[in-house]
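Posting here for the record, re: zinc ion.
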Amino acid sequence: MTARTHDLAAITALLVVVLVNMPVSLRLSTLLLAVFANQVGGIAPDIDQPTAPLWRNLPEGHLVGKVFGKLLGGHRFISHSLIGFALFGWLCDLLLHFLHPLMPHVDILLVWYAFLIGYGSHLIMDTFTKEGVPWLLPAPVKIGIPPLKRLRITTGHWMENGVVLPGLIAFALWLCWGHYDHLVALLHRVVS
Ligand SMILES: [Zn+2]
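Prediction output follows.
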């Protein structure tokens, strides 16, 4: 899937979790950082390829991306597995605890959850693509849904851009519409 679809899937997944498990109170700083972490998590698995958005926006990023890709075993390898999910989750947890003294009012647990939700949504979305995802590394099997490869989505093709992307937008809007009062109430409870 493209970065745009992953971003949208990550924020939609976060929205679903928030609606199911509405926080009692939420600071603005936590909300903003959680959305940021969610978006980073949504594209983080693709740092295993030099064309990832992160590398494209960094000077000499293409080269760094190549090195990172090699370290992670190539595209759709470690970072696209449960081991990668645990590894990146652990690194994010370390970073948040390191930064917490600089932002003591931020609920880093919620930010961490938002990152994991974004990361998990990436792996789930990629599972629907032709390449599949090696969820169970070191078992060298790429898992895809549906099992028949030719029925899966090709990254960047019409099915993704014409069906999945608009479908995610429609679903997110439908959720916001259906839970408008709850979301407004939550935003009213946001304290700075
Ligand atoms: Zn990916």
